[in-house]
Amino acid sequence: MHPHEQSAWTPPARDPAEPEEPAQVGRILRLFRPYRARLAVVGLLVGASSLVSVASPFLLKEILDTAIPQGRTGLLSLLALGMIATAVITSVFGVLQTLISTTVGQRVMHDLRTAVYAQLQRMPLAFFTRTRTGEVQSRIANDIGGMQATVTSTATSLVSNLTAVVATVVAMLALDWRLTLVSLLLLPVFVWISRRVGRERKTITTQRQKQMAVMAATVTESLSVSGILLGRTMGRADSLTTSFAEESERLVDLEVRSSMAGRWRMSTIGIVMAAMPALIYWAAGLTLQAGGPAISLGTLVAFVSLQQGLFRPAVSLLSTGVQIQTSLALFQRIFEYLDLPVDITEPEDPVRLEKIGGEVAFENVDFAYDPEATGRATLDSIDVTVPAGGSLAVVGPTGSGKSTLSYLVPRLYDVTGGRVLLDGVDVRDLDFDTLARAVGVVSQETYLFHASVADNLRFAKPDATDEEIEAAARAAQIHEHIASLPDGYDTLVGERGYRFSGGEKQRLAIARTILRDPPVLILDEATSALDTRTEHAVQQAIDALSAGRTTITIAHRLSTVRDADQIVVLEAGRIAERGTHDELLARNGRYAALVRRDARSARATKDGEGGEHAKAGAVVPQNV
Q1: Does residue 134 register a pLDDT over 60?
Q2: What per-residue confidence (pLDDT) applies to 611?
Q3: DSSP 8-state symbol, 123
Q4: Alpha-carbon gap, residue 459 to 515, rounded angstroms
């Protein structure tokens, strides 16, 4: 067995209990590792800001206990200026730390988005056949977007509030340790409440993001050009609107639940913290009445000021803890994508072919999409060689494995047994750049970007000149049509190319492939959905494209493969027949039966067209 052999990719089962929170938090913290220097500056600014802000109550104590009672105007002015200076310095430090922390947060967001997008680019084709496009878009847009507040501000808020709390508590202890104990008596209860609320919101957030993904998928599918056409022609527009409204209603419920989760409990914390000054005054009064040491007015006011200063960062710290737990649900969904197994990878020491001849060989190739689920192979023991510059046609009934065979050459899938060779080298040993340069694919499903004609063609060769683009369009029999458009090559093709007909889109795809100039060409039923006249024009473009290239044609209409050097008939994933067109007709086997069926279908189509012409002629006056 070849060392590359492996089973086809299947999506991993998701365990909602994994990863464990400590490990996940550690992984989140590693995202910030490249920005350690900037975060250190933020930490210094936060620490300095906290120390400066704590100084203000001590200045106030001196004003009340010393400057005003003793009538020392100079000292009073100096202390008042000091309080103003602390406010100014704290504000400046706050702006700077916000700037740096927001920049770091946005860079982390950028890194996450790019990492997810790059990971998805590496995923096998099977992943995208099993995953709704809207789900993928939701992970990148909604999930990462939902983390923005957490990533950009939570780290700074956490450090800032934690530093402020510690500095304030130390200052409170320095003023009066007994009042400090009274102030912190309920802190453990507050922490327990916030953790409860955080877990509750995390659960709801997971459900909310799933619902947002469902809605995104619904919008992507139903509001695409194809979705609109299908909905209107089937009379399902109202039904689709009703279905969307139901999904939106579920999201409303989850949003309300997320917003209100633990709201009363967190409000209780706010009420208690706001009532703490009254508790401090009450405790100070009881201490004095019990014969304890007197507390000066300045100390008492300064302490209450510190205690009120403690209120904001303490509540913010508890809220940050809730927000972090909520964001863990979003990070978990992103990490699920980052942890998806990538089966089709470039080898550690890849082979790079500078000059590509174009010989393609299938050596005892087996392939199964999901052998455990289906219990059967899609391709079984395929052996066939296409010499450089030669042509192979693959025909057979629907589901026989024709397209699958073509997918193995550019490594859209990897074989589960045997080898696919390009110029004698296993395609799994080649670097991706060599494979991309070597193999061009023109399929029945032509994809065009919502961009200009020129931009769509340049996707194959970004540095192509206008002359090269025009030459490729001429070879593909599409230049005259493009030139006749008001904007020429600057014409927008529309969503998925809907401003062009099927034959025109196919010729644009052929021009794009001509521009790339691959030595190996795969035509996957490139003309099967076209009418006879359009097929003729597209076939001329294909003939120009195929000249001098190794060509593998997946054929539905057998008229397009008569001149192939070699024809292979697939049946249930195995080679049933092989030979030239004349050899296979003389054998009078499966290929001959397919040709006869194709001929009957062509005659029926021609008769139908003739009948339509006859009907039209019956109503046309003779003198026209």
Answers
A1: yes
A2: 47
A3: S
A4: 9
DSSP at 430 = B
- Residue type for position 225: V
Cis peptide before 350 (omega within 30 of 0): no
Burial (CB count within 10 angstroms: exposed 0-12, middle 13-18, buried 19+), residue 258:
middle
- Predicted structure pTM score: 0.65
The per-residue pLDDT for range 489-547, each reduced to its tens digit, is 998 887 666 678 777 888 888 888 888 888 998 888 766 555 666 667 667 777 777 77
Instruction: Count CB neighbours of 289 within 10 A.
Output: 8
C-alpha 541/C-alpha 510 separation (Å) is 7
Owner of token pair 């599918």: 221
For residue 426, is pLDDT > 90? yes
Beta bridge partners of 568: 394, 578
| Exposure string over 16-49, b if 16+ CB within 10 A, otherwise e | eeebeeeeeeeebeebbeebeeebeebbebbbeb
Q: Given pLDDT bands bounded at 50, 70 and 90, which one contains residue 109?
A: confident
Q: CA 184 to CA 283: how far, in whole Å?
A: 13
Model confidence pLDDT, tens digit, residues 583-603:
989 998 888 888 888 777 766
How far apart CA 164 and CA 146 sit, in angstroms, is 27
Q: How many Å from the N-terminal Cα to the C-terminal Cα in the chain?
A: 74
Q: Are 517 and 547 in contact (CB under 8 A)?
A: no
DSSP 546-605: HTTSEEEEE-SSGGGSTT-SEEEEEETTEEEEEE-HHHHHHHTSHHHHHHHHHHHHHHHH
Q: At what angle do helices 21-31 and 73-122 cross, to 10 degrees?
A: 100
CA pair distance 588, 595, nearest whole angstrom: 10
CA dist., res. 594 & res. 578, Å (int) = 13
Crossing angle for the helix pair 263-289 and 297-338, nearest 10 degrees? 160
